[in-house]
Amino acid sequence: MGAGTESMTMNVGEFLLRRIREAGVQHAFGVPGDYNLELLQQNEDSGTLTWIGTCNELNASYAADGYGRLNGLAALITTNAVGALSAINGVAGSYSEHVPVICICGSIPLRSIERRLGMHHTMADGDYNQFIRAFEQVTTARTRLTPQNAATEIDRLILTAWREKLPVYLELPSDVAYLDIEVPVDPLVLEEPPSDPERLRSCVTAIADRLSGAKSPAILVDLDADRFGAAVEVMGLCEKMQMPVAAVATAKAAIDETFPYYVGLYNGQASQPQAREAIETSDCLLSIGYRPIDLTSGSFTDSLPADPIHARGHSVDIGDDNYQAVTLREVLRGVIDAVPQVTNRATRPHVPAQATGNHAADGSAKLTQAAYWQAIQGYIRAGDVLVAEDGTSYGAFGLDLPPNCTFVSEAIWGSIGYTVGSLLGTLAAAPDRRHLLFVGDGSFQLTAQELSTILRHDYKPVIFLINNGGYTIERCYLGKTSHFNDVATWAYADLPKLFHPGTTARSFVVKTVDDLQKALSAPNDTLIFIESIMDPYDAPQGVISGGNSGADLDYGPRGPQHRGNMLLRRTAQ
Ligand SMILES: Cc1ncc(C[n+]2csc(CCOP(=O)(O)OP(=O)(O)O)c2C)c(N)n1
Ligand SMILES: [Mg+2]
Predict the structure, then answer these.
(1) What is the pTM assigned to this prediction?
(2) Which residue among 35, 56, 144, 292 has its CA within the 20 to 30 Å range from the CA of 335?
(3) Is the CB of residue 538 below 6 angstroms from any atom belonging to ligand 1?
(4) Where are the alpha helices (DSSP H) in 130-222?
(5) Alpha-carbon distance 31 to 21, whole Å?
(6) 510 φ, ψ (degrees, to nearest 5)
(7) Which sequence positions are flagged as catalytic?
(8) How far is the centre of ligand 2, averaged over its atoms, from the C-alpha of 357 (Å)?
(9) How far apart are the first and last CA of the chain?
(10) pLDDT at res. 356
(11) How far, in Å, CA of 222 to CA of 216, rounded?
(12) Closest to 314 measured CA to CA, from 193, 217, 400
């Protein structure tokens, strides 16, 4: 072998763990099973990854997703079928929202496949490929490792996940992990293939010409700006051209919200005003990965100017031209160099919504959503990680964030309970930051057990739980008073001591603004659990109008939402 291609002998399992670690992943989430115990033992013996066992694989998949959003790559380890299929919902969410997760499934031994033995955790029908096929729907690459392919397939899958920002699925048959193979000595290097030089030059010139010739250029970012690590370049381009940038909700905080050229969230008719004006009246819009979906386009009331430039992770569309083999950051860096410095364009920065709001409340009055979010606005500080669940907790989208905050939500996939698992992942990825979870009672009930794992690892997040007796956001779609939107009453604030006897966690049950302020003054030296009791028919106005228009979209003109008092409606203001 030539220089740089030296090999060494290593077993498959240790090589897999080593490569994951070299790719910058320090933790793995999952649940043991007989088909992956050998890999977990290798990991424990070698100390390669910190194992975070979860209560179930669904929660592990959410944790891996949260970890991947902050860390850029994550690892999930499950056992054959029963574990993997339990995780598949979370992995699909990662696929939908472009989070690279390496899903490792300890699977039935190759010996059993060759001899066609009926095994547990299968359909017992002689088909050994069903679960690889299932994961075809939710991953961008898949493989079953063998001693022959492991050295190349492991690198291919890890690199593919990282380059495409999508999950991948590897089956590791349980009799393969301890077999020795020849593997490279050199560490795995995560890098993008460089752009095609001619395509890059032409693409940069085309974008720079259009932006330079425009009177009111603007940028609209979606989540790929964050996933492909292009926020710094986006801001650099805005500064050079003195041009505004708006974000869609799925990219909230991808651009520092205090950046002078940030104009707010774009969401069709439900946009923040400066954002709507900047985007819709632009004569040259550069969109980064924009994917209009109902919840982030104001129910398709978005109205982009004609002929925007669409830049994605690895390609760009400009008019009739399509550029392949160009990477987003190289494109943006090239454009920054190519455009002239603009010095005389007027800017209209984002006006913080809370600064104009006025929800002054009597401190002893019943806590309302308006007063709740206003109090939380005052609590947020620079560098916080905010994790916001589907439901009235989407009020968090209305918060104005100080610098260096990260905002995690699963606004497209929207699987409730996601945030409790995801919080475990964000905590593991960034243990030195303050993490705030915003979750409703209904969502929390899906994945509540993972609070025990958060306590077990002595993490210290602040958990804001809204107890409104059920699924208020659903009441805004249909069933305002229907029983199917009620949930069982739990003693939520008692759960820390139930899940972790002897815990130092501080719990609060909050009914008024004064109660809330008292809870918010608690020091962050331990986990803080704040259960806020609120009215089932109180919701942020954006949640109500989103639900009302969602009902029309979902059920059509003949739908039940037209009958009297069927849904929680927006009140006249
Ligand atoms: C896995 C899954 N099941 C069901 C739903 C439908 N759903 C969306 S939001 C929601 C209710 C959330 O209720 P809660 O967390 O209590 O929020 P709030 O009452 O504050 O609106 C439900 C049931 C979903 N999105 N995902
Ligand atoms: Mg609720």
Answers:
(1) 0.97
(2) 292
(3) no
(4) 130-136, 150-164, 197-212
(5) 19
(6) -115, 130
(7) 34, 57, 120-121, 414, 441, 468, 470, 474
(8) 24
(9) 75
(10) 43
(11) 20
(12) 193
